[in-house]
Amino acid sequence: MKEYEHQDLFVIWKPELCEHAKVCWQTLPLVYRPKERPWIRPEFATKEELIDQINKCPSGALSYRLKEDSQ
Ligand code: SF4
After folding, report:
1. pLDDT tens digits, residue range 14-60?
2. 24: Cβ below 6 Å to ligand 1?
3. What span, in angstroms and rounded, lies between the C-alpha atoms of 31 and 3?
4. C-alpha atoms less than 13 angstroms from C-alpha of 50 in its C-beta half-sphere
5. If you measure from the C-alpha of residue 65 to the centroid of ligand 1, how many angstroms do you get, rounded to a whole number?
6. Are 8 and 47 in contact (CB under 8 A)?
7. What CATH fold (topology level) applies to the domain 2-70?
8. Global pTM?
9. Ligand 1 proximity of 62 Cβ (cutoff 6 Å)
């Protein structure tokens, strides 16, 4: 499991669940760059855009948590 931090949001990616369905990088191509490392660059979208896109991941590989959740 990998986490990518941006402001008060952590994008969580579970590679073993990813179906490479491309939904993420077709929706937010500036954020999800499968040929680069790190491949998720959450700073290129707003928190709302990230959450909206994460909720569309068909496999459940993407999820998120807010910083205040961990306090
Ligand atoms: S949308 Fe989800 S399943 Fe599809 S490539 Fe992105 S992380 Fe993987």
Report:
1. 999 999 888 999 999 999 999 999 999 999 999 999 999 999 999 99
2. yes
3. 14
4. 26
5. 17
6. yes
7. Alpha-Beta Plaits (3.30.70)
8. 0.91
9. yes
